[in-house]
Amino acid sequence: MLTYARREIEPYQSSSTPQDRELRAFTYGFLRGPKAQPVRLSLRASDGRETELSIGRSGYSDVRSSPAFAWKSLPGGWALITLSSFEDSQTVRQFVGAFPKIREGAGIILDLRRNGGGSSSIGYEILSRFINLNPAVNQSGQGQMGWVGRLGFEPIAKNEAQEPAPALID
C-alpha cells in the first residue's frame, strides 16, 4: 500500500508541506472514486502470501475529525490551543473570539502537530496575535496591507499577547 501510494498517488498531489502531501495522498487520493464502489486492495504478506480485500469508501461511523480550533485550560493556568487546519476562515473567527479569555492564563501552548495546512492568511492572522508582523515583508503583491486583515479581521498595531508568550510543540 505504501509503495503504491508513494509511486502512483503522491507525485500527483499538490501540497504546501510534507504532512499535507501525506494527508492528501492517503486520504483524498488513495480513496478517490465513487463512494458506492469499494476500494480493491491486493496485499502481499512478508511470507509472500497474497490476499485481496474490498474496503468501502464511506459509511464509517467510528471516524471522528478533529475541530480546526480547540482550546482548554491546563493545570497551572496554561492554555492549550490546538489548530488542526488553516483551511477555513471560521478557524480565525473562533480563535479571535476566544483569545481574550485564552490570554488571561499563565501561558499558552500552541499545538500545530496535526495541522495539515491550508491558507497562509489564516496562519498569519493567528500568528499576528503573538508577534508584531510587518506587512511590508509580504511577497504576495497584495499592497501595503499585505495579508494583514485580508480575512476581514482588524490588523493589530502591536503584539496583543504581551504576556503570556506562546510555546510551540514539536
Distance between the termini: 28 Å
Beta percentage is 15-25%
Number of helices: 4
Number of strands: 6
Proportion of residues in helical segments: 10-25%
Q: Please, what is the oligomeric state?
A: single chain
Shape: elongated
With strands numbered from the N-terminus, the spatial order across the biggest sheet is 3-4-5-6
Rg? 21 Å
Mean pLDDT: 77
Class per helix and strand makeup: alpha/beta
Element order, helices and strands? HHEEEEHEHE
User: Biggest sheet, open or closed, and with what strands and sense?
Assistant: 4 strands, mixed
Question: What low-confidence regions span 5 or more consecutive residues with pLDDT below 50?
Answer: 135-161
